From TrEMBL:
Signal peptide: 1-18
Name of the protein described by the UniProt record: Alpha/beta hydrolase
SUPFAM superfamilies given in the database record: alpha/beta-Hydrolases
InterPro entries: AB_hydrolase_1 (IPR000073), AB_hydrolase_fold (IPR029058), AB_hydrolase_sf (IPR050266)
Molecular function, one GO term: hydrolase activity
Gene Ontology CC terms, in alphabetical order: membrane
Provenance organism: Emticicia agri
AB hydrolase-1 domain segment(s): 45-158
Superkingdom of origin organism: Bacteria
Length: 299
């Protein structure tokens, strides 16, 4: 609990220190943070950050100032997150990519971009790169929501750890198809994190078909993977060994992510940090900073 309180305290401090500004795009205001754009050299890359699900700009406060010494940075809050307005449209990959593109254009921040995405932001980073592949100089995924997985991938993991087939079917139905209470799309309380969670569930039901069909730009691709199991005892599954599931799933993810790296002639890297949890950029900021700088130096 103490760590969680400290984390949110960091977010509040960073938000105030960063002097966020509001940018209006198509009648909606987005909270943004930039640094180093004033001294940007022509055609040099800009680091563009996509936050995790429902998380604001402050989640990057451990790395963004230091990285701004190597390249200009741009971070923002997606629709309905913290100070950014609600849009009352589901945050699909296309909708989110168009919002980001409009923001960058409005602020006169031309490409190339190195897009850095954490968790759900990794999924949105991948889709932005797919919709605007000619504008991307590099991709960095920080423990991303796995946009390469399929339902069968999950089933195979459960089989490997000994879950009975009947229980696998039940769990997958509950995870993907069990009807959930859906609020009205005009309900302002339920846009932002809620809608992103619903969008992720929809993408999982289709095996991320929309994203898998988008082109992958031929650029350096970096993945950061956290190896620390963090699920509290009270939240662990009673159907299977949750920690074993985590490690097996991590190994399967790594195999697919390596294939994605190898699909680019520009190469890349997969950095596995055994003592880092989901927020790798907070648990091991130095490793994230150092490796993103390596990517930038190689461009």
């Amino acid at each position: 609990m103490k760590n969680i309180l400290n984390f949110f305290l960091f977010l509040l401090v960073f938000t105030s220190d960063a002097q966020e500004k509001s940018v209006n795009v198509n009648g909606k205001n987005f909270a943004v943070f930039t640094k180093g754009l004033e001294t940007r050299k022509p055609n040099s890359p800009v680091l563009v950050f996509e936050n995790g699900m429902g998380v604001g700009i402050g989640s990057w406060n451990t790395v963004i100032d230091e990285l701004a010494k190597s390249a200009p940075v741009f971070a923002y809050n997606r629709q309905g997150v913290e100070k950014s307005d609600k849009i009352y449209q589901m945050p699909t990959p296309k909708q989110t990519a168009e919002n980001l593109k409009a923001l960058l254009k409005t602020m006169n921040i031309p490409p190339p971009y190195v897009v850095v995405g954490h968790s759900m932001g990794g999924l949105y980073a991948r889709s932005f790169a797919g919709y605007y592949p000619d504008e991307i100089a590099g991709l960095v995924f920080v423990d991303p929501a796995d946009f390469t997985e399929s339902k069968d991938d999950w089933n195979q993991i459960f089989r490997e750890i000994g879950v009975p087939e009947k229980r696998i079917d039940e769990m997958m139905y509950n995870r993907l198809y069990q009807p959930k209470q859906v609020a009205s799309r005009s309900d302002s309380l339920n846009f932002g994190p809620w809608s992103e969670r619903q969008e992720l569930a929809e993408l999982r039901r289709t095996d991320f078909a929309v994203i898998k069909n988008l082109p992958l730009p031929n650029v350096p691709v970096y993945f950061f993977v956290g190896g620390k199991f963090e699920v509290p005892v009270a939240n662990r599954s009673t159907d299977y060994d949750h920690e074993r599931f985590f490690h097996v799933k991590n190994s399967k993810n790594i195999q697919r992510w390596l294939q994605l790296i190898h699909s680019s002639s520009k190469g890349g890297a997969l950095i596995y940090l055994a003592n880092s949890g989901h927020y790798i950029h907070r648990d091991d900021a130095k490793a994230v900073i150092a490796n993103i700088r390596l990517l930038l130096e190689g461009l």
